[in-house]
């Protein structure tokens, strides 16, 4: 959190910066481009390599005796379950005279309920005619099984009704015998018994007639079911268009790959927590961004892009030369994520400073590749850190080092008492940028500014710390000497010290920040 000149804390940073997240995802476009391209290629490849086998379909109208207008599809689901049984599969294979195992044949066809009475049967085969024959055999076997089951149900129901009718007839015969065996009497009780027997006989006759009618209806329903259950759509092969399938799969693969790439890029950006915006890098390092330089061009960049990159590099060199000339103490360039570019930049700055007097570049980069490189007679001298003490006093020294993980922090002060950080955007995590700022403050090395390499071209955030408090490094009461020999503001005019949880701030030099964008914008 930065502090304003009035001493009031600014608004706290949000938990998730959407702008930084969008920029981080856009910088990882190679990832989601690659996944989108992979999906685009995998879709047609799957369509070619995983071509569906020849398929035939047929539609069967299934009539149920228990059909109701408010049926929720229970009956048709029962028919689908019966279709997926080894009994139906075995009978269909027997009709086809095929030796295939019914359990394996179950995987080669399926049923789908279109409505409460329409059943769609799909069957696959080695060829189109084979698939059609299988679909027809399945439909015929299912219809025969359905009709047989309906007839068995009707016969069983009719038999139960007729058995009940016969029982009623036996009881009626007993009642008739009782009526015939009773002599006529004038006794009132005998007359009541006779009347009850006649009433019972009438009831039995009515129930016998009802059972006869219900048995006849049960027998009549089976022929209606048998006549109504039939094939309404003859078996036919399903056309499969390979170009259409390839195009569909390519579109699906492109969308899925792009979505997966964006998700992975977003999750990786949040987990890695690597600042990419100017304001984030400036806030984490506690120093202003004084210049920018586009990233490495393509293997074969266009002429106008090469011209723009060359102009941006010249502007950056001019800015750094002005910064080094304005400081009476040795200055170093410390890189993070761009060692080769920082070495070349140091040689350009040293070549520009050679007009003012002898200049030597002190190579403190890992591997000492800069000191071992070949140079012309007019190029500035490059010495290693061990040979820096043997340089004459009038020679201006320009140190080049690294603040990457594994840096020997105590050796940085021998490269220069002041430094300019050359940081590649998105290379270091926020925690490591805090570590760099804290370690430089412990070594009493003020940061004159930050040169941002490979910034986001659409970044419109401000990387300048306008408050610039003269903060004591890492909690000490002493403050660093202001750059360029200035004494700084009087003690009475200095802003009060505040408790801050962010990284310690080094003093910002009193100079204008020059921006070297990757566009036609003018430098600020």
UniProtKB/TrEMBL annotation:
<dbReference type="Pfam" id="PF02706">
    <property type="entry name" value="Wzz"/>
</dbReference>
<keyword id="KW-0812">Transmembrane</keyword>
<dbReference type="GO" id="GO:0005886">
    <property type="term" value="C:plasma membrane"/>
</dbReference>
<dbReference type="InterPro" id="IPR050445">
    <property type="entry name" value="Bact_polysacc_biosynth/exp"/>
</dbReference>
<feature type="region of interest" description="Disordered">
    <location>
        <begin position="454"/>
        <end position="524"/>
    </location>
</feature>
<protein>
    <submittedName>
        <fullName>Putative membrane protein</fullName>
    </submittedName>
</protein>
<keyword id="KW-0472">Membrane</keyword>
<feature type="coiled-coil region">
    <location>
        <begin position="151"/>
        <end position="214"/>
    </location>
</feature>
<feature type="transmembrane region" description="Helical">
    <location>
        <begin position="250"/>
        <end position="272"/>
    </location>
</feature>
<feature type="domain" description="Polysaccharide chain length determinant N-terminal">
    <location>
        <begin position="16"/>
        <end position="95"/>
    </location>
</feature>
<keyword id="KW-1003">Cell membrane</keyword>
<feature type="compositionally biased region" description="Basic and acidic residues">
    <location>
        <begin position="505"/>
        <end position="524"/>
    </location>
</feature>
<keyword id="KW-0175">Coiled coil</keyword>
<keyword id="KW-1133">Transmembrane helix</keyword>
<comment type="similarity">
    <text>Belongs to the CpsC/CapA family.</text>
</comment>
<dbReference type="InterPro" id="IPR003856">
    <property type="entry name" value="LPS_length_determ_N"/>
</dbReference>
<feature type="transmembrane region" description="Helical">
    <location>
        <begin position="31"/>
        <end position="50"/>
    </location>
</feature>
